[in-house]
Amino acid sequence: MEYKLNYADTDVDLLRTMRPPGRIYWTILTVLFLLVVAGAVAWWSQIQTGIGLAGKNSPVGWAMYITTFVFWVGIAHSGTLISAILFLVRVRWRAAVYRSAEAVTVFGLMTAGLFPFIHLGRVWVAHWILPVPNFGGLWPNFRSPLAWDVLAITTYLTVSSTFFLVGMLPDLAIVRDRVKGWRKTVYGFLAQGWQGTDLQWKHYTAGYLFLAALATPLVISVHSIVSWDFAMSIVPGWHSTIFAPYFVAGAIHSGLAMVVLLLIPLRTTFGLQQYITMHHLESLAKFIIFTAMVVGFAYSVELFVAWYSNNPYERAIFLYRMTGDYAWAFWLLITTNVLAPMLLWVRRIRTSIPWLVGLCVSVEIGMWLERFVIIVTSLAHDYLPSSWGLYKPTLTDSTIVIGSFAWFFFLFMIFVKVLPAVSSWEIKEQIAIPPKEERG
Amino acid sequence: MTSERTILGVFTHPDQLLAAVRALRSAGIGEIRVFSPTPDHRILHELGGKRSPVRAFTLAGGLAGLAFGWGMTIIPLANFHLHVGGKPLVSLPPFGVVAYIFTILFGAIATLVGMFVHMRLPRPQLHAEYDPRFSADHYGIRIRCGAEEAEGIVKLMKANGAMQVTRSRG
Q1: In chain B, which residue's Cα lies nearest the Cα of A149?
Q2: Which residues in chain A have their CB less than 8 angstroms from residue B115's CB?
Q3: Which of A152, A402, A423, B41 could bond to A225 as cystine, CB 3.0-4.6 Å?
Q4: Pairing state between β B164-169 and B4-11
Q5: What's the burial of A331, exposed, middle or buried (CB within 10 Å: 0-12/13-18/19+)?
């Protein structure tokens, strides 16, 4: 897409996000910080007392923590899709939104990465999963998807952070050239001496292409590996080959909705409607329609496979999901995740900001519930009826989960003020330069 | 006293910059450094030069990661013959997942290293002739030449639309 702007105005407009914040910003940031502290206190209390404080016990040993872990890893995927995959296929509208989407990736992973520690119970033995031998020469079990998870999430965070910061170098140079005093020193350090020479641009564009090419397979692989935490077990409702594409589609679905939810206040608060246009939001909404249909199809295939397989345990778990103790969650997720996003087919709805916000929140609720239903119902109701048992959230795990949401938004709010949230140099690349005579 | 001169021309339009670069190349000026707020592939093409070797770093890193991933999962088995569930000691599918992850990780890190090496970053001090307008909406051409060539280069730049040309020693 072509922007009818000029280079100088672009810098002024886009760096507006980094101006000193007002009272509303500080109020929201304080509330988020307090929620994070509440989550930290709850976690400390859990470390002192034990994982039972979070309601995790036999048979439901995994519940809200793994649900939220998978949720945040999923959220992270759309950022890489928008920044890396859309870059490779030369989708030009990505320029205004990819920086925020990448921030969603990095902060989503930083949030998800807390949960392996949180749900571990004995946090002090977390180092046992690292790929180094212990004193007896024993290595972690590399056949386990839990070990793959550690490597995959760490790799994804490293590669995404690299892509995020490298993509920002020219914009950090713009900030360096506009500020004074200690800020100039800080941004000068972050810009690493970038000057926009022909040599730098040549190697930068080449390297950026390869980073995008390397990040792209991670979009598919990381959430596939996370899904195999479940699919490689024999628990009914988990042991299915559909899990990898099912989880990846769901990840992109939730991630796109989160990106929309963050772009809308960003553009409204800082007056960036010329840059983050309705075309961007509409394009993302169309993507969401597609992912909602894929997720809906995946749900139907799961049901079909359970019936067609004639496996009584598979059939039983799906019947339990639809009619059992957590049926309310199942039907709510179908409504919020698949049915509600179908309203986006109506142009008036997908170009309406309030509707977009409502439907994206609906998708987030639905995607969280999807993981909750998969995990909790299968553990609550597996092979042996005498082992069946229910899970109820407790104050501890609920506080920690809410704290994780607060942590994510806290990080994003800091990012908006400290780093350039929209890529100025890529927007400039798309500005139509008027002929020489008009510039005078 | 050095007879070398540094000439910096500042332009406001990329077409003028391109014309100036072409004129300077036609005049046989070899070492041209261009500053721009965005990459301009016409300029990069005009300046010529070899393809970026960053790709070699990516390939080397990826191959190293692949080897490391397989090595890390297979070599320790020599010390610990622990058969799990009757499965083979060297299980290629799960170890392949680990190798795949390390291929990407090492490839990305190597790409970053390659980029920084070739971009000559980090750079504690900017070029003396760097102008902050180059990150905004102006373009620059820097030439290092002998004192006798300087006048001709200045004239060429002005003839091709330079709004400002500065000369300095060294």
Answers
A1: B98
A2: 166, 203-204, 206-207
A3: A152
A4: antiparallel
A5: middle
Our CA-based measurement puts residue A335 at a distance from the nearest CA of chain B, in whole angstroms, of 35
Q: Could you tell me if A341 and A363 are in contact, meaning their C-beta atoms sit under 8 angstroms apart?
A: yes
Q: Which of A412, A414, A416, A402 is nearest to A34 (CA)?
A: A402
Please tell me what DSSP assigns to residue B53.
Answer: T
Taking contacts as CB-CB distances below 8 angstroms, the residues of chain A near B123 are: 192-193, 195
Render pLDDT for A237-283 as a digit per residue (tens, 0 to 9): 999 999 999 999 999 999 999 999 999 999 999 999 999 999 999 99
CA distances from A79 to A111, A209, A271, A417, B38 (A): 15, 16, 23, 19, 23
Q: Which chain A residues in 213-272 lie under 8 Å from chain B, judged by CB atoms?
A: 214-215, 217-218, 221, 225
User: The sheet that has B139-146: what strands, in order across it?
Assistant: B32-35, B139-146, B4-11, B164-169
ipTM field: 0.93
Distance of alpha carbon B114 from alpha carbon A73, whole angstroms: 29
Q: What is the three-class DSSP state of B167? A: strand
Which residues of chain A carry a pLDDT beneath 70? 1-4, 434-440
Residues of chain B with pLDDT below 50 are 1
Question: What pLDDT was estimated at residue A432?
Answer: 73
Query: Where on the phi/psi map is residue A281: left (φ > 0), alpha (ψ -120 to 50), or beta?
Result: alpha
Determine the pLDDT at residue B55: 95
CA B142 to chain centre: 17
Give the span between the Cα atoms of B92 and B94, in whole angstroms: 6
What is the distance, to the nearest Å, from the Cα of residue A54 to the centroid of all Cα atoms in its chain? 24
pLDDT of res. A74: 95
Query: Which amino acid makes up residue A103?
Result: A
Beta-bridge partner residues of B10: B140, B164
At residue A435, the pLDDT reads: 63
Q: Which amino acid is at B132?
A: P
Name the residue type at position A143: R
Identity of residue A394: T
Contacts of B96 in chain A (CB under 8 A): none
- Token pair 């479940």: residue: A230
Q: What is the pLDDT of residue A20?
A: 93
Residue listed under structure tokens 């991933």: B69
CB neighbours (10 Å) of residue B158? Answer: 14
User: What distance in Å separates residue B18's CA from the closest CA in chain A?
Assistant: 12
Distances in whole angstroms, Cα of residue A130 to Cα of each of A133, A153, B94: 8, 12, 17
Judge: B34–A162 Cβ closer than 8 Å, yes or no.
Answer: no
Tens-digit pLDDT profile for residues A49-95 = 988 899 988 899 899 999 999 999 999 998 899 899 999 998 988 99
State the Cα torsion B101-B107-B110-B112 to the nearest 10°.
Answer: -90
What was the pLDDT predicted at A440?
40
Mutate to test the interface with B, among A80, A155, A174, A437 (most CBs of B within 10 A): A155
Would you state the pLDDT for residue A135? 76
